[in-house]
Amino acid sequence: MFPPCTHIQTVISKAVALAASLMLAASLCFAAPEDAQAPTDKRAMDSVNLLLLGDQVKNTVGEKTNQMLGKAMTLLGVPYKRGGSSSDTGFDCSGFVRHIYETSVGRLLPRRADEQAKTTEKIDRSELNPGDLVFFNTMRRTFSHVGIYIGDGKFIHAPSAGKAVRVDDLRAAYWTKRFTGARRVQEPSASDASTP
User: Fold this and answer.
1) Whole-number average pLDDT of the chain
2) Which residues contact 173 (CB under 8 A, 6 or more apart)?
3) What is the set of active-site residues?
């Protein structure tokens, strides 16, 4: 006896989704900026791990956060540009964060990293959830760099000149040494939403 059509459609859609995920992983691998410390095999595995992380996050966060992180991931590989705030021309760290929040959840954050830290809720590192902001001292200023936490100890950001939007691990020695705080962006209140 043959299975019902809906079962066949489900199997086909799962196969198509798997194929699309593998193609996305391969494209991320080849689109990733060259990094002497990350051979092709490692980048391919990192891409697959990011896809798996994306599936885990998708199942544990709200729809808005899921959309926001999905939007952020589409910008992997966009070049860093000081003062940049557009996927066409490039991003700096705070321009990237501002762009993601504005275009995905409609929340307008200040332009600079230190201002973003001041206008968001301070949380403990142990309380980090996907979509929260992570701050670092990379220029001898407490909040000179910012990224968006995506889960599993990782964050997405626009690192510095000559590099591109990428995912890094908070537990790496470089970031651990420079970590200066975590912040949560609050949902806009009804009065914020009605203000032009």
Assistant:
1) 79
2) none
3) 93, 145, 157
